[in-house]
Amino acid sequence: MVTVQNENFSALQICMSGQCFRMDRCGENKYRLVAAGKYLEITQQEDKISFDCTQEEYDNLWNVYFDMETDYARIIASIDREDSYLMAAAAHGKGIRILHQDLWEMIISFIISQQNNIKRIRKCIEQLCERYGEKKISDKGVAYFAFPTPKALANASVDDLYACGMGYRSKYIYQTANSIYHGEFDLEKLGAKEYDAAKRDLLQLYGVGGKVADCICLFALHKTDAFPRDTHINKVMKAQYPNGFPFERYGENSGILQQYIFYYDLENKKYRNNI
Known about the structure:
alpha+beta; Endonuclease III, domain 1; globular; two-stranded antiparallel sheet; single chain; five-stranded antiparallel sheet
């Protein structure tokens, strides 16, 4: 067990932020996650976070995965105090961190995310993992499934993917998996490229549009200047920033601020819908 203290870490907010789909709540203040072929349980009491793993595993994997070395308090402190909306969004979602996730997994996950909601995305990904992922047993005896490899999905038929609930996205997944598995698209080169170049390359993949490419850049390649725009973000931009979001001020932190905005808007919608 490894315990750290951080005021800018909320397992709940990370879980619900729409950037990862294999993390869920499994008890009071307790969460479980499958990532990088590993199973992890997290317990949080206020700003104390306990990772159920060895110190070595934490240092080599989870410390990087959760971006623990980045000072999110400093980023929040850089927000223009006259921007009341962004100040409120950051205060509400200050526990969100931009995760260092697997590139291949994020490509498929965000293809699945198109015209979809978080609950259904989670279900689709779990069905895909259970059918095509390797079954593993954690050190605690918990059975789980790793994310399917490009080979596994390339060898699936489009009809098989439909049967997993992928819908029209089945052909996107199939063709993208084949493109990567057969070496037509090289994932290894993307990380070293600047955001704009990486996004241009991702747009070559079948079924990857601008918003999906931005999500992959932000949540897998950690290009924190990427700023994904869906219908929710576009409405916020129109209402709160009619003259444009101040990208020149926030630069490489723009994507982090986007997550605060996305989560704040999502939570406000939940509140309004329950009135």
